[in-house]
């Protein structure tokens, strides 16, 4: 994209669930970065808007009253929350040690013990930029510090998936050299059974995502060209790709491919998404690598 390209407007008034509004913030930051050629700070990104549009991540007029509290993560983690992960660490000892420590105990027990232990479990799910798919081409960087907070509402991943029952939520945004986003969301649940149920909700939503996306395209006067396919599966893990002309809102507008991953371990559900926008660069990722991505998330 050009350094002077105008950022796309992100619609926030209709995004009433956790997840999509925060994702809109990431999309807004990515779009703003496309105009400035540098990832902005959270404060800079939240202030960026076009043509009088509401700032990404902030409800539009009239939306704040109906939107659930806490649907947008604060600019910095709340007191006692986990610090953001290192932007330079790779898939090495730090993540291995964190996961080895946090995942050795039963996550169902962690979910019942309270915020501090749950936050530690979610922090153990962190993914470093170098571990993200297609890093050789995308050259991922952290967009802003990770945020962890309690969650008292459904989590909406995209137009197709809404997940109930999570107690805490950790989100980390990344930006590629093409100024396109990747987002990792980790959700904790009260026990393993609740996490398994949430995992199935994700699978069910993605299994019908082509139809859901096509219906949305028709509503906005677009050719219903959305196509979704499952690209990989492991024990308690799935990956999909969606090719479509996106409807701006939870997604960016325009021709694109979305990559979606979910892994359930114990009482934690990890979700990773990244996008390839035709307007930014030719698609370079080979979904045949998706099984290894799932294995990394589950490791």
Helix and strand topology:
Layout: H1 20-36, H2 42-47, H3 93-102, H4 107-113, H5 115-123, H6 135-138, E1 141-142, E2 147-150, E3 155-156, E4 162-163, E5 168-175, E6 181-188, H7 192-207, H8 209-219, E7 227-234, E8 237-246, E9 254-265, E10 268-277, H9 290-298
Biased composition (Low complexity): 33-91
Organism: Streptomyces sp. NBC_00049
Protein name: PknH-like extracellular domain-containing protein
Structural class, from helix and strand content? alpha+beta
Contiguous runs where pLDDT drops below 50 for at least 5 residues: 1-17, 35-113
Gap between N and C termini, in Å? 35 Å
Q: State the helical fraction.
A: 25-40%
Shape: globular
Largest sheet: 8 strands, antiparallel
- The CATH architecture of one domain can be given as 3-Layer(aba) Sandwich
The CATH class assignment of one domain is: Alpha Beta
What does this structure look like?
The chain has a domain at 91-298: Protein Transport Mog1p, Chain A, CATH 3.40.1000. Helix 4 packs across helix 5. The two termini are 35 Å apart. The chain has nine helices and ten strands. Strand 8 and strand 9 form a beta hairpin. The model is unreliable at 1-17 and 35-113 (pLDDT under 50). It has 299 residues and is α+β, with helices and mostly antiparallel strands. The protein is globular and about 45 Å long. Strands 1, 2, 5, 6, 7, 8, 9 and 10 form an eight-stranded antiparallel β-sheet that branches. The chain has a two-stranded antiparallel sheet with strand order 3-4.
